[in-house]
Amino acid sequence: MPYEMRLFEDTLFGGEEVRLEKRAPRALYVSAGSISVDGSDVPLDDGVVLTDAVTLRAGGDGAAVWRWEVGPSGLHADAYAHRATLRLAGPVDPAAIADELLIRLDSVAFPPGGTALLHTHQGPGIRCLREGEIRIDTEGRSTSYGPGGAWFESGPEPVFAQASMNATSRFIRTMVLPRALLGASSIRYVNAEDRDKPKSQTYRVFAERPIELDPE
After folding, report:
1. Which of 73, 25, 76 is nearest to 49 (CA)?
2. Torsion angles phi and psi, residue 10, rounded to 5
3. Handedness of CA 159, 189, 161, 42 (dihedral sign)
4. Which residues contact 184 (CB under 8 A, 6 or more apart)?
5. pLDDT per position as a tens digit, 163-193
6. What string of DSSP letters covers the chain?
7. Sign of CA dihedral 35, 53, 151, 179
8. What is the C-alpha to C-alpha distance for residues 34 and 189, in angstroms, rounded to an integer?
């Protein structure tokens, strides 16, 4: 079965409650305001990963939520009609990743002028820039993103990232990875000489969780 990852942006009014009925691997990141997830508070600039149906409730000032979901290709489940925008989608091939999988929500931050040296990852994912500016070089293209800009990385395709020279930059991402990487980095440097060089990027893992996807 072909799968894809989808990034939605959900906007909730103060106190609004939304039920995501379908069970699916999903990650939620609060980009503005605050929410509760089945009664547990999730503040600004924090996130969770889930696999079951869930109820979201916005705080008194409302909320904006970046929501990643993994599901069958072309089936945009839980894109409830009011104030939910599909930002980006990209393919996920479970069989090409590993027999056992996880979903991870984390952030990657760079100081001014920071770079991510030429590298790959062990699974696909969608990134969304939280602050600053970043240029992504991959697949023969160079693309710059500002706050809210989103892009997909396949995993095995080499990537070089150059952050803004004038400000700190940070993106939020969700990836599907081999379950053997629970608690471990997914990055692999293409050039052997880069592996031991000092790295400018820093990471924060919000949450990760084992998931099941039918590889057929």
Report:
1. 25
2. -105, 135
3. positive
4. none
5. 999 999 999 999 999 999 999 999 999 999 9
6. --EEEEEEEEEE-TT-EEEE-S---EEEEEEEEEEEETTEEE-TT-EEEE-S-EEEEEEEEEEEEEEEEEEETT--TT--STTEEEEEEEEE-HHHH-SSEEEEEEEEEE-TT-EEEEEEESS-EEEEEEES-EEEEETTEEEEE-TT-EEEE-SSS-EEEEE-SSS-EEEEEEEEEEGGGTTS--EEESSGGGTTS----EEEEEEEEEE-----
7. positive
8. 36
Q: Which residues contact 75 (CB under 8 A, 6 or more apart)?
A: none
Q: Which two tokens stand for residue 141?
A: 């293209």
CB atoms within 10 A of CB 169: 28
Q: How confident is the model at residue 87 (pLDDT cuts 50, 70, 90)?
A: very high
Task: Report pLDDT digits (tens) over 42-80.
Answer: 999 999 999 999 999 999 999 999 999 999 987 655 555
User: What residues have CB less than 8 Å from 79, skipping those under 6 apart?
Assistant: 8, 86
Reading the block at residue 178, the tokens are: 């081999």
Q: Are strands 159-163 and 115-121 parallel, antiparallel or unpaired?
A: antiparallel
Among 21, 46, 28, 56, CA closest to 205: 46
Tokens for 11?
């906007």
Confidence (pLDDT) at 215 = 62
